[in-house]
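Consider the following input, taken from an annotated entry for Nitrogenase (Molybdenum-iron) alpha chain (Blastochloris viridis).
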Amino acid sequence: MAINLKTSSVETREQRLGTIIGWDGAASSLAEESAFSRGDCASCGSSRGAKARRVCELQGPFTQGSVCSEQMVECQAGNVRDAVLVQHSPIGCGAGQVIYNSIYRNGLAMRGLPVQNIRFVSTNLRERDMVYGGAEKLDRAIRAAFDRHRPNAIFIATSCASGIIGDDVESVARACEADLGVPVIPLHCEGFKSKHWSTGFDATQHGILRQIVRRNPTRKQDDLINVINLWGTDVFTPMLKELGLRVNYVVDMATVEELAQMSEAAATVSFCYTLGTYLAAALEQDYGVPQVKAPQPYGFAGTDAWLRELARVTGREALAEDYIAREHARVKPLLAALRPKLKGLKGYVATGSAYAHGMVGVLRELDVEVDGSLVFHHDPVYDSEDPRQDSLGHLVETYGDVKHFTVGNRQQYQFYNLLQRVKPDFIIIRHNGLAPLAARLGIPAIPLGDEHHALGYQGMVNLGESILAVLQHRKFHQDIAGRVRLPYKASWLAEPDPFALARLATV
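Applying the prediction step yields:
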């Protein structure tokens, strides 16, 4: 699937991949309907030659709340250490920066990097600007950001407001770049352009690929690996050191120079294909940096395959086999001690799409039952179209089906019904807005703020220990459930189908 870096605006995931945000059924059915790159999808008429896979989608009549593409630009471009993000938006669009600043500071501390605050400027578009335009305001904001912070790059995040009034952000950026002598990078991420926030990841990466990554590097670093991640602890450095490799973490908490050198790396990997699909594919297509095409590094099967493919790409097969054997010998006794304590428990995963596929696999490695999972969107295919990256197919084929597998955009009213039909002992969640509802049902949550917590061989042990720890608080959550009421009508509380309103709307 060709990626077009000649245009300034990234294609949305709906256009490119056929992304959906509403579906309910068995995981095996979704894998079959998606067809990934394994053949035609007879049920919906999609063929391998189509630009985007078409999967039947349930569309609800309203949305309680979610996040948007611009917020993903905030937490990516806004977290480049020596850059500045200018949000060309009303000031309210920057409200999310409060929590992103906390996450950014914690991430820097976990990595042993100097702790600092994020650096962003809002153009604070107001009613007058919506009538007369905000281009001059954007120009002033960019120059003020440069004078104040002297960054090595300036990112511009567009917004619904700037998109509606049609400001010529490109012209302003070019003029400022010529005057200031640093890249000034427009990131077109208007919230109304895409129904899922993951397009915002692609928008940030699109701008970086176009204006920061070195086009014609004078050298190649044969031991350097691009690792596309967020803010998690540094688990990749000790893993890849065993293969004689160095880590180049991108995009969050990287410097502009570290982003520029991505074209010099030997390969690109990611902890989650949802996050890394666009950047990794474009680096391979336009810069000749191969992406590692293998299952994600979760559980024994995924981690083994991931390490072996990375070793094959970098010519380190013997080192990888030695490391795999040592880690199996170390971890298997630890898991043997954990499994009897976890057997019979029922877990539920509510996270981003590809990440959830990995988490379910790890739970199954621990002998935890998983009858249900909620993913916040679904990409029927990733940009490589390589079946080795079919994370949902890998889950079903390696660990078995998930009976109640739901695609939903973080809707509170649906989450109640989803949990009621599965009745888990605990949930695993990354976007914590749904966790309070679980608590009101007496279900404790494991919030994976560190996205690397369950990654690799040690990750299985980490997650098992976290489950045992959170279950110590089960009585507390049961007490909460006994003393609170949910704000829904009795008819909805008795409804077994979380998509009943969507089905009614299509009748």
